[in-house]
Amino acid sequence: MSDLERRFIEDRAIRDAARAVLMADITHARASLSAKGVAARIGGRIGDGAKDVFEVAKAHSEDNRGIIAALIGAVLLWLGREPILEILGLSDSDETSEDAPKFGEKHEQ
């Protein structure tokens, strides 16, 4: 076998090996960039971020229980302010217009 034939066979083998590596890389890229792969990565990152935020919030809540209790109490009082003001006789029922539509009702013209 001549030197040219031997070199030709070696070059062909190198070419075939390079093509096999390229095709494996393309297959791997298609799998990782598929819609399922992207969604799984995004979901995983969001999940990891949510876990981190939860851990930080948990650590801060253990340190500041009184502040959190006061904040929750203030929110509950704000949400229940109308019935509380009515019980105390301090509601402004005269100021609300009876012609104004209530939530979920359509205003007739």
Supply the number of helical segments. Answer: 4
Could you tell me the radius of gyration in angstroms? 35 Å
Q: Pairing-aware structural class of the strands and helices?
A: mainly alpha
**Structure summary, number of beta strands:** 0
Percent in helix: over 70%
Contiguous low-pLDDT stretches (5 residues minimum) are none
Could you tell me the mean pLDDT?
Answer: 83
Instruction: Give the CA-based shape.
Output: rod-shaped
What does this molecule look like?
The chain is mainly alpha-helical and 109 residues long. The protein is 76% helix and 0% strand. The chain is built from 4 helices and no strands. The mean pLDDT is 83.
Briefly say what this structure is:
The chain has helices at 3-33, 35-63, 65-79, 81-88.
Q: How would the blueprint of this fold be written?
A:
Blueprint: H1 3-33, H2 35-63, H3 65-79, H4 81-88
Task: Give short descriptive properties of this protein.
109 residues, mainly alpha, rod-shaped
